[in-house]
Amino acid sequence: MSLLGSFVVRRLLLGVAQTVAVVLLVFALAEALPGDAAVALAGDQPDPARIAAIREAMHLDQPAGERLLSWAGGLLHGDLGTSLVSGRPVSLYLSEGFGPTLLLAALTLALLIPAGFGLGVLMARHESGWIDRLASSVTLGVYAVPEFALGVLLVTVFALRLDWLPPTAVGYGTELLAHPAVLVLPVLVLLARPVCSLSRLVRAGMVEALASPYVAQARRYGVPEARVRYLHALPNALAPAVQQLARTVDWLLCGVIVVEALFVIPGLGTVLLNAVSERDVPVVQGLAVVFGVLTVVLNLGADLVAHRFAPRAEVAA
Predict the structure, then answer these.
(1) Cα dihedral 64, 68, 74, 80 in deg (nearest 10)
(2) What are the Cα distances from residue 136, in Å, to 78, 126, 140, 270?
């Protein structure tokens, strides 16, 4: 087996192990929730019969091992469970909230790649110059601002003071593309920190590559500077940048919850927050597993792409 094939097999096996760990961890955390979920769902004046019915519906009257096997078996068949509050399948919650969340994430990534790489290359090209120092200071300052605080600031300035953009998505439903102005502030909030981290990483990789012996040799042979910069130096900054993009998507899964709550966007983040507030354990478990498996898949893909661009680099397996 080739080195690439061996690496792919190791990463796939690790991905399977991580997926199993995610399922076990989600179940364990749900089990560790304080209080009795059946009593909480029964209301302020719980009726013993209602509590018993809820416990039976949640299979709380069964041992934890049996419930784990039953739930994991359902996951293997695509059954994420049934909401205790509405009685609807958890998959319906996913299908309803997936559109707005995917739209926000896709727009953020579509803008992040050119903005992050472009700014990083610009900073590296003017290393130690005023452009580099200014961009480094601004990105460091923006990165230090939490998403919620940045969102409140943008809403205050552009929605409340200047009245240029709507402050929330209330009244627009899930057809957000039909009202692009609603997306501007949420995407800016989601984009701010990833652009800062990605651009600084690309800058560091470009600066290191431009100072390497093979770039000096290419310049001695008279290779044009643009070709040296973009065909020799930039590819060496891609491997860590691709892994950073995967971590950014992981962060988006968390950041989108804050943004959707702040701008009242009916996506998966809002679904998760509502499920937590209603103590709807199956919905929380289902969404947590989906988020966890997405994280494993994205990191697996990022490692494979990074290994392709930098096959000699030491990639964690």
Answers:
(1) 90
(2) 46, 11, 6, 34
pLDDT tens per residue across span 219-274: 777 777 777 777 777 777 676 776 677 677 767 766 677 888 888 888 888 888 88
What distances in angstroms separate CA 101 from CA 80, 81, 93, 276, 285, one per listed residue? 19, 21, 12, 18, 18
Question: Is residue 174 a contact partner of residue 99, using CB atoms and an 8 Å limit?
Answer: yes
3: three-class secondary structure by DSSP = helix
* Distance in angstroms (rounded) separating the CA atoms of residues 246 and 296: 10
- Is residue 317 over pLDDT 50? no
Instruction: Give Cα separations from 197 to 82, 117, 176, 243 (angstroms).
Output: 39, 11, 28, 12
Whether the CB-CB separation of 306 and 243 falls below 8 Å is answered with yes
N-terminal to C-terminal alpha carbon distance within the chain: 17
CA atoms within 13 A on the CB side of 3: 8
Distances (CA, A) of 267 to 5, 197, 255, 262: 38, 25, 12, 12
Round to whole Å and give the CA distance between 37 and 51. 9
This model's pTM is above 0.85: no
